[in-house]
UniProtKB/TrEMBL annotation:
This is Ppx/GppA family phosphatase. It comes from Sulfurimonas lithotrophica. SUPFAM superfamilies: Actin-like ATPase domain, HD-domain/PDEase-like. PANTHER family: EXOPOLYPHOSPHATASE (PTHR30005), RETROGRADE REGULATION PROTEIN 2 (PTHR30005:SF0). Keywords: Hydrolase. It comes from the Bacteria. Residues 18-298 form the Ppx/GppA phosphatase N-terminal domain. GO terms for molecular function: pyrophosphatase activity.
Length: 487
């Protein structure tokens, strides 16, 4: 597969282009992203789904710029898919031919089930393991669903129910009751679906989640893996549906979504009610990532390998040159966690988070050694997202930020208190990471000492004098009821 791959998604409301770069076999990162709200389906549903000339012109010129951008990045492959707007349009072939002839861009119109599947595999691979979850992608002309259980994607469904379609057929005529009836009839295809979680894909869901996060002054500025309880989400949807334009502004809805946010909110409201959803999860990935993954994983049944994380691998590929040291830190931190777990009553779920923090700790040194911790912190908080909860993202980045320093500050803990574990647990994990770093100060190729716990003493047995480790550990604020003893 080419190192750089571009993906274009032509939707009813927007066209989006992303460029991904591979750093190793299954590791990749987003290199560039652009979008344009071309409203390709504007006025189409009032004209037998035929694309209108102005909308096609806007889309053409946006795609022309995308082609130039892709060329500037020297991407070797471009995958271009189109969804509902072109799927429904009787005059689509003329538009597709023009794009092919003038821009040398081949558009593949995918059916609704394929669209649902692509969104499903993106979430299955790039969100933390989800069980009994249903993805929902509310687009301009259609809405897609896919059921996910243990990375398996099934029950892919597409229905002719979208924000622009509802706006033109019902909201423009102030026929809200008609819209509700239309939605509920379309949602009968979900009668046999039993899901407790709803994973939101696409612009409508992201707009609502972004507004909720702003309203709450949420400390983390990323929506991927954001979790919301159904009562919080439904309360916000109700406020949106009852708001005028001035109130939508106060609810942090962007002006360019005023005309379609209510149709989208009504769809989501009816789905949550029908399925009795308990929890909602925001996905920062969707069809575009699904298109890329279906190409990347075409010989792997559309699944990343077990226990493999593409974000971790990318950071290691791009920012950690001494893999031996990184692996030793990872190994030692897990060993110390296992030794101290019962004594400090540590939840087993934190073992992996600590080990990843240890593995990625050196990453910031690739930017500047004297500010390694700060750079590692920003790298991890911005780049470590695929496959992690937001609590894990914040914990791992926090541990790295305060490694070899004082324990996490009260200011930092207060800022991220809704995402961090209790202070005692956080301080213990921070201590273990710092201790691991100090014990490896002499950079052995293989760990050349053994650790054991005897009462309140952590015994370090080594033939090496470990002079640097002893010196640093003397200045390390000890955990209560723990003494470090070198033999």
């Amino acid at each position: 597969m080419a190192k750089r791959v571009a993906v274009i998604d032509i939707g009813s409301n927007s066209v989006r282009m992303v460029i991904y770069e591979k750093t190793s076999r299954f590791a990749f990162h987003l290199l560039y992203e652009s979008k344009s709200k071309v409203r390709l389906s504007q006025n189409a549903y009032q004209n037998n789904s035929n694309l209108q000339q102005d909308a096609m012109e806007r889309t053409f010129f946006a795609l022309a710029d995308f082609v130039n951008i892709i060329s500037s990045f020297k991407a070797r492959k471009t995958l271009c898919v189109a969804t509902s707007a072109l799927r429904d349009a009787p005059n689509k072939y003329d538009f597709i031919k023009r794009i092919r002839d003038e821009l040398k861009l081949n558009i593949k119109v995918i059916d609704g089930e394929r669209e649902a599947y692509l969104g499903g595999i993106a979430c299955a691979n790039l969100l933390p393991n989800q069980n009994n979850a249903l993805t929902i992608d509310v687009g301009g002309g259609s809405t897609e669903f896919a059921y996910i259980d243990n990375k398996n994607v099934t029950d892919t469904i597409s229905i002719d129910l979208g924000t622009v379609r509802l706006k033109e057929l019902f909201f423009d005529n102030n026929d809200i009751n008609g819209a509700k009836k239309y939605i509920d009839e379309k949602l009968e295809v979900l009668n046999d679906i039993d899901a407790s979680k709803l994973i939101g894909i696409g612009g409508t869901f992201r707009a609502i989640i972004t507004a909720i996060m702003k309203q709450k002054s949420f400390p983390l500025r990323k929506i991927h893996a954001y979790e919301s309880k159904s009562d919080e989400f439904e309360t916000f949807l109700k406020a949106v549906l009852n708001a005028d334009e001035e109130e939508l502004c106060k609810l942090n809805i962007k002006e360019n979504r005023f005309d379609i946010i209510k149709p989208g909110s009504l769809i989501l409201q009816r789905v949550i009610k029908k399925l009795n959803i308990n929890e909602l999860i925001a996905s920062g990935v969707g069809v575009r990532e699904g298109v890329y993954l279906s190409d990347l994983l075409r010989t792997s049944k559309d699944k990343l390998p077990a226990n493999y994380n593409t974000s971790v691998r990318h950071i290691l590929d791009a920012h950690v040159s001494d893999k031996e040291y990184s692996n030793n830190l990872n190994k030692l931190s897990k060993e110390l966690f296992d030794i101290l777990q019962d004594k400090f009553n540590l939840d087993a779920k934190y073992r992996r988070d600590l080990a990843i923090a240890a593995k990625l700790y050196p990453s910031g040194g690739s930017i500047h050694q004297f500010a390694q911790n700060r750079h590692s912190y920003y790298l991890i908080q911005s780049s470590l997202e695929y496959g992690f909860t937001q609590k894990q993202m914040v914990l791992i980045s926090t541990l790295v930020r305060y490694a070899k320093r004082k324990l996490p500050s009260n200011v930092h803990i207060e800022k991220y208190k809704v995402l961090l574990p209790d202070t005692k647990t956080l301080n213990t994990l921070s201590y273990i990471l710092t201790l691991s770093i100090y014990l490896l100060n002499h950079r052995p190729r293989n760990i050349d000492f053994r650790c054991s716990l005897e009462g309140n003493k952590l015994i370090i047995d080594s033939k090496n004098r470990m002079y640097l480790a002893k010196e640093d550990i003397e200045n390390l604020k000890a955990l209560e009821d723990l003494e470090i003893v070198f033999n």
